[in-house]
Structures are given as C-alpha cells and as structure tokens.
Amino acid sequence: METPGSQSSLHRANLERVVRAVRLSGSLTQAQIARSTGLSAATVSNIVRELQESGTVSVTPTSAGGRRARAVSLSGDAGIVVGVDFGHTHLRVAVGNLAHQVLAEESEPIDVDASATQGLDRAEALVSRLVGATDVPADKVVGVGLGVPGPIDTETGVLGSTSILPGWTGTNPRDDLQSRLGVPVYVDNDANLGALGELVWGSGRGAKDLAYIKVASGVGAGLVINGQLYRGPGGTAGEIGHITLDESGPVCRCGNRGCLETFTAGRYILGLLEASHGPGLTVERMVQLARDGDPGCRRVIADVGRHIGSGVASLCNLLNPSRVVLGGDLAEAGELILQPIGESVARYAIPSAARQLDLASGALGSRAEVLGALALVLSEMGDRSILDGAVPVLAPALTDG
Q: Is residue 181 classed as helix, strand or coil in its secondary structure?
C-alpha cells in the first residue's frame, strides 16, 4: 500500500508525469520529457527504461538539434481512442492509438433532419466497423471523443439549442453514446474540437494561446489559453458569431440583430450571389470561383474576411492570442480571406496585440474536428489505466463487428 510522501508514491507520481507528457504530445525525446516534467535527466532515463520494459512505451532512435536522441511514444498496445464528429450533413469517425497515429478514418453523409437516435445509431455502427478494421483488439478502446455543432452544458452534457441539428436540442449525446459503447465518452462542440485538432496536428502546433475560428453553417471559436481549452463556466465561451456588428442588421438565430454570424455564415452570404450566379451555389463552389478570379465571389469573401477580422480584433484586445487559425469551408480561400481579416485586425485591435498575432488557415480541413475528438480523449483520459494495464471492456456493440 502506497503512503503519501513515500518513495513508492513519489515513484508512481513520476511515472504518471512521464506518461502524461508523452500522451499529450504523442512523441517526445527524453530531454523534452525532462524539460516538460521538471524531472532530472537521470530520473527520466530510469523511468523510460522501466516503462519500455513493461511494454508501456516504445523508444526509437531520432535526432534533435543535430545530435542523436531517443524518441519516446506510448506503445501501440497501450490502447486506442475513437473520435466521432457530427456536422451539418456528415458523420466522420476516426480511430487512433495513444502515439497519435490515425489507424482508420471514414466519413459518410447524414440527413440534417435526422433525430439524435438515428444519428447515434449510425455512429455506433461506423465505430464498430472501423474498430474491427484495425488490428487492435476491441477491448483496447479507452475512450471516445464526440463532437457536436452546438453548445454543450459542461456539467450535464446536454446539448443546447442548435439550428444545425435541430432534432438534437435537449438531448444528452454523451450519455447515450456511452451507454451504447460501454466506454467513457467525452463531448465538446465542433469549434473547440477544431482548436484541439489544429493544436495537436495542424496549424496550431507550438502555440500556447490560440483561437480557432470556424466559419461554416454557423460561426464559433475554440479558445486555447496556456495550452488548455477554455470553455467558460457554462461551456459557451467562444461564441464569437454573436458579437454585434450592426444593431439594425439582420435578425440572427439567437434573436439579436446584426450578429457577426449574419454577415459571415454560409446560409447568409450565398444569398448575396444568387442574383448573379443563380440558385444552388455552395460555399465550396464560391471559394473555387473566387480562386479562379470571379470578381463577385472575391468581393463577398473579402467582405466576410473584414467582418471576421472585426471579431478577431475583439479577441485580440481581450485575450491577446499569439495565433488565430481559420477553419471551415472558407479557410480554403487562403489569402483571399486572410488578408482582409488581417486588415481589420490592424485597424481595430490594439497595435501591440495585432503585431504579435499570427494568422493562418487550418491545415486539417474537414478533418480538424474528428482529429480534435481524438485529441480530446488523449487530453482528458487518466494515466492510471495505462500504467495498470486496466482498460475498460467494450459493450457487445463494438465486439460484434
């Protein structure tokens, strides 16, 4: 029995610190582990050797700064995680291991008017199929990350009002999916997961403070402060789409007038081009036409960029992030939208905050949210099960496929 303050409890704590550092980063050299944990190089070396002998981590030769080094990552046998992302018209699932490697991934369309039960039925089947397609036993699944396009109550897991999946409002997709799969499920909104995905795998790598702005059917921001997601006490932090730009502007789905979303979301801006480009235009097609030189599409994207820049400027003045990553369909416009965003930031933000800001398009595209769901599990799961080799057993739904 370990006594607090004893050598055995201290050793256990050091083991967990090393495992946590590797779990969050995917792969670290021993020198990086020492810097991130504050442990001595000798202690890290001994712990890594012990974890390697137990099969918890794998060690491979690498180089750092031109010198030979050893890269440490969690073993492929340590467990797997699953990401599930529900969007306006899609369901995407990914399976990854604890070394941050994606083992399987698939997307399929869904009906926007489908109920939560129908959507989760589809998710359960797709998760089962993808887990079965890997060579890892199903009982190695340690958790599932779930992304939904709407506000989540951080205490109850209940989904708030959402116009993107209207049949889901008031449901608890976390508890429902958890009861189906028999493993812990962690849920968050799509913007927060996009921020996590870009932070771990994409354009946010290396940043401690960033905002991920997703512009799609709605507009939201995922905020990372000092390396951690900031959700606010009610889980609604980052609702940048409801900053008021014009008190006499169009009525927003939230009930207010002139919100940023009413000038930037796809369902509003496409109407501006209907007279010149006809009905049926999509955001993806608009972006492609703009990249090909279409003046009307370029003008609309530039105007959207300036509006988004006003919201980003407010974020800069309040939070002073070092990086802003633009996600969603409009991010494919590249400099056509980043330049007007930067112009608005330069105009409306405090000069020192504007100078420090790095603007970038997301690197992950439509995969940002599902990879963020994997990252959510990797950040929220504990290390005890990894060290003890005690991973939860899946429900029959995941072992039948």
A: helix
Cβ count near 20 (within 10 Å): 17
Helix, strand or coil for residue 324?
A: strand
Q: Retrieve residue 66's tokens.
A: 């031109």
Rounded distance between C-alpha atoms, residue 24 and residue 56, angstroms = 15
**165: alpha, beta or left, given left = phi > 0 and alpha = psi -120 to 50?**
beta
Instruction: Please compute, for residue 58, the number of CA atoms within 13 A of its CA located in the half-sphere on the CB side.
Output: 12
Residue 81: pLDDT band (50, 70, 90) is very high
Nearest CA to 350 out of 319, 324, 323, 317 is that of 317
**Maximum distance among all Cα pairs of the chain, rounded to whole angstroms:** 75
CB atoms within 10 A of CB 239: 19
Identify the residue whose tokens are 């900031």: 230
Single-letter amino acid code for the residue at 251: V
Q: Give Cα 386 distance to the centre of its chain.
A: 23
Residue 351 identity = P
Tokens encoding 367: 């995969």
- Which pLDDT tens digit goes with each residue over 306-359? 999 999 999 999 999 999 999 998 999 999 999 999 999 999 999 999 999 999
Tokens of 274: 């209907």
N-to-C CA span, the chain: 41
322, 316 in Cβ contact below 8 A? no
Token pair for residue 68? 């030979």
Work out the number of other CB atoms within 10 angstroms of the CB of residue 69. Answer: 17
- Residue 194 near residue 369 (C-beta atoms within 8 A): yes
Asked whether 80 and 96 are in contact (CB, 8 A), the reply is: yes
Residue type, 152: I
Q: Does the pLDDT value for residue 400 go beyond 90?
A: no
Which contacts qualify for 28-35: CB closer than 8 Å, 24 or more apart? 28/71, 28/72, 28/73, 29/62, 29/64, 29/69, 29/70, 29/71, 29/72, 30/69, 30/70, 30/72, 31/64, 31/69, 32/64, 33/72
Query: Could you tell me the sign of the dihedral formed by the alpha carbons of 109, 139, 197, 244, in that order?
Result: positive
